[in-house]
């Protein structure tokens, strides 16, 4: 059960994270201004493909002997750098902040939430996964 002190600690951490991201948004916006857009988009696609292939989809903590200790960090770093590259092409500080916040939620927090749901109930995990697929397809087919 969540206690009030734990909830306040989570809220404080979230506020620090969000404030830090908002303060750094102008830096993210101008980070790659001198690099051509073609190079940025090519690097972004490459990094997202790297994330796609290196992400640990099993959620398992058991690794084979000799395996990398945490290959997920490479995947996560690739997705965060790709997010910064995309955000650096947006017109305003607020756009950069909103996109970075959304992408960090997708790449950092969504895998943790789905892992916790899967550990709680596999049926709920399947329902959640199919609901997300349906939502994604409905948005894709609307446009």
Number of domain modules: 1
**Helical content, roughly?**
over 70%
- Biggest sheet layout: none
CA radius of gyration is 18 Å
**What structural category characterises the helix and strand content?**
mainly alpha
What multimeric state do the chains show? single chain
End-to-end gap: 42 Å
Q: Can you tell me the overall shape?
A: globular
In round numbers, the mean pLDDT is 83
Order of SSEs: HHHHH
Beta content comes to under 5%
Question: How many helical stretches?
Answer: 5
DSSP E strands, number: 0
Subcellular location: Membrane
Pathway: Glycolipid biosynthesis; glycosylphosphatidylinositol-anchor biosynthesis
Family: Belongs to the PIGC family.
InterPro entries: Plno_GlcNAc_GPI2
Question: Can you give me a brief rundown of this structure?
Answer:
The chain has 143 residues and is mostly helical. The protein is built from 5 helices and no strands.
List the helices and strands and how they pair.
Layout (H helix, E strand, L loop, with lengths): L3 H27 L6 H18 L17 H16 L5 H28 L1 H21 L1
Helix pairs in contact: 1-4, 2-3, 3-4, 4-5
How would you sum up this structure, described in words?
This protein has 143 residues and is mainly alpha-helical. The chain is built from five helices and no strands. The protein has helices at residues 4-30, 37-54, 72-87, 93-120, 122-142. It is globular.
List its traits:
mainly alpha, 0% strand, 143 residues, 5 helices, single chain
């Amino acid at each position: 059960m969540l206690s009030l002190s734990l909830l306040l600690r989570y809220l404080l951490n979230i506020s620090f994270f969000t404030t830090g991201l908002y303060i750094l948004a102008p830096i993210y916006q101008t980070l790659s201004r001198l690099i051509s857009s073609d190079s940025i988009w090519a690097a972004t696609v490459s990094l997202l493909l790297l994330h796609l292939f290196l992400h640990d989809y099993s959620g398992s903590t058991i690794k084979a002997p000799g395996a990398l200790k945490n290959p997920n960090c490479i995947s996560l770093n690739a997705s965060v750098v790709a997010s910064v590259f995309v955000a650096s092409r947006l017109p305003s500080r607020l756009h950069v902040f909103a996109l970075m916040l959304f992408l960090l939620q997708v790449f950092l927090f969504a895998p943790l939430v789905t892992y916790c749901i899967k550990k709680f109930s596999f049926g709920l995990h399947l329902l959640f996964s199919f609901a997300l697929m349906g939502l994604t397809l409905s948005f894709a087919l609307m446009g």
